[in-house]
Amino acid sequence: MEPTPNQDEIIIDRGSASWSDLWKKEDYWAIWLGVIVLLVGLICFLPAKPKDMDETIAKSNAVMESEAARAPFKTVAWYKAQDAKKKLKPSTEAGKFFKKWMAHPGDWSTDITQAFIMSKERADALNVANMPKYEAAKAKEADALAAAVAAEEAAAAVSFQDAALNAAAEEKIDSWRKAGAAASKAKAKTELKPYNHIPTLLVLPVVLALFFAIGIKFMGKSVRAFLKGFGAVFLVGAVSYALAGQATMKQYGVEYAVWAIVIGMLIANTIGTPKWIKPALEVEYYIKTGLVLLGAEVLFSKVVAIGIPGIFVAWVVTPIVLITTFIFGQKVLKMPSRTLNIVISADMSVCGTSAAIATAAACRAKKEELTLAIGLSLVFTAIMMVAMPAFIKAVGMPYILGGAWMGGTIDATGAVAAAGAFLSDKALYVAATIKMIQNVLIGVTAFGVAVYWCAKVECQAGRQISWMEIWYRFPKFVLGFLSASILFSVLDARLGSDAGYVLLDQGVLRGFSGMARGWFFCLAFAAIGLATDFRELAHHFKGGKPLILYVCGQTFNLMLTLAMAYLMFYVVFPDITAKI
Amino acid sequence: MENANATVRWLAFLGGLLLFWCLMFVVFPAINRTVPAMGRMARVIDEHNLRTGMFFYTDVAITGDSSVETSSTIRYRPHGGEHPGPVVGD
User: Which residues in B lie closer than 8 A to residue A381 (C-beta atoms)?
Assistant: First the structure.
């Protein structure tokens, strides 16, 4: 990352732009490469409609509508119709190809080789061993379904006029859903397939190296030197993915980003990063390309997934906390670095690492500042993931309120899901949905920070900045990020929420571009680690102000989010809450 | 560390790897055993096959199901039958 200009380095000369920037500048190459990936995804997945998709969606929606009109609670038929929609997945040879050739090392417990290879014999043995548990869960589900149907019929027999029968039916249906979820998880453990990621890990770095080398060539850098060092950066990334798949690491949220930074820093600060690797340490290049792909995952239609309560909790509270924390950091704590302040503020208030990445790139923060923000987020995420559900249970808070609270405050989506799942399925769904809505705020945050930095921060006090000057300084990759977001949001709206979920969400994004984005960020974090000096990192933490900023901001976030969640879910829209 | 000789630097590197190993197989499992809340959370995470460090919604499979569940509830909110009163709860 480029150094943040201090008072002595404020830009006073006018910026400039030319047409050749389109093929010479890194920001534009991030956009072109991102566009290539997204176009490939759209070409492969948009036509890959599952068989009878439209009919299944129409039939399911009709059933849900009629059941909603018939009963005061979600009936068995309502849920079965919803499940039929959830089962729709795009099926395409390209999808299978990408899944195989972009796979990262998998999960393991004590034997790290399991992250790379699982033999057919082992897969078969595990499937057989897990079968009795699945059969027991399946039988339990069948019994629960029979009980749910009977209870529903009893309630329907009196036209749903008996509150006690309705409550009993809802309880039996809830038990059936829980039994079904358990059976589904047990079934997944009987369908393990053998895999071998070694060929992928040999071929993928060659493909990625050549992919990024296109931009390196046009940017006037040495392709040869880049290619020579890329393999080592990829190796750190692959090892990071492998370590992140270890069972205990999954529990504590020590993901590939953390491992890539930590392993990279260990190498850089002990044996030293060899000089021949350095031309491949293109941190910003990898991150900006990854961010353009991330933009496609920022779908504005997700904002209404849980109605107005979700919008208020995720989109009203978050900007208030972000701006307040930033001002607190500047005026009260007097943080020495504005970029560190805004990156931590965004990290804590929006959605953790992804917000930190986008904000850091938008304001050109130092890589050490990004590393510090991610480290703070990791530590507090692990604490909050355990402490918040325990607190919610201890004080008897309603789980939907608790889910909304955790969704709006815990940084990482995975940790939010875990904390929600700890309470109940409903808490999980609410928490994960609120976090998803917050994720969408990244686009607005990155754009806002970029404009603010160009217009206000990177200029001499009292000097007027023209719009052209803001344009010259504006990080252009943010336009790629936003354009991808707008394009995919429009596509999602045109397809409709159901078809959009199947073809875009499950198809293009989770089936292809999300995997590419993961690898690009992994390369970026490996490069950050390999280029980071411990002493620089420690310098940014001096005085503990970043920690104080995070703690104070998160405390405010916790209070405001809880208040807003209670107001929205229990005072203003209790009817929505009642039906969740 | 730049001024230290190669042996010291390699020892430091191996020491770092050993530290990672200890965290992974000794320290964190010990926390799971001794802190009941973390132990229970670990079981929930394993049961749902979650990766708690995943930071974006598209990285976490269950967010897909969650968004379908919640948006279905908003679009097709049950309102049939005579209303004996909404059951607001978990």
Answer: 52-53
Residue A154's Cβ-count burial label (10 Å; 0-12, 13-18, 19+) is middle
- The domain ranges of chain B are 6-75
pLDDT, one tens digit per residue, over A441-478 is: 998 999 999 989 988 887 666 666 778 877 888 889 99
Ordered DSSP codes for A215-264 = HHHHTT--HHHHHHHHHHHHHHHHHHHHHHTBHHHHHHT--HHHHHHHHH
ipTM of the complex: 0.88
Task: Give me the number of domains chain A comprises.
Answer: 1
Mutate to test the interface with A, among B70, B75, B79, B87 (most CBs of A within 10 A): B70
Q: Which of A248, A301, A303 to mutate to test the interface with B (most CBs of B within 10 A)?
A: A248
pLDDT at A536: 81
A84 lies in a domain?
yes
CB contact under 8 A, B63 and A432: yes
Domain containing A180: what range?
A: 55-92+118-195
> Band of the pLDDT at A301, cuts 50, 70, 90?
confident
Look at residue A78 and tell me if it is in a domain: yes
Per-residue pLDDT reduced to its tens digit, A86-108: 999 888 898 999 999 999 999 99
Q: Is residue A511 part of a domain?
A: no
| Closest chain B C-alpha to A16 CA, distance in angstroms | 35
Rounded Cα–Cα distance for residues A503 and A483 (Å):
19
pLDDT value of position A8: 35
A152 belongs to a structural domain: yes
**A389/B90 Cβ within 8 A:** no
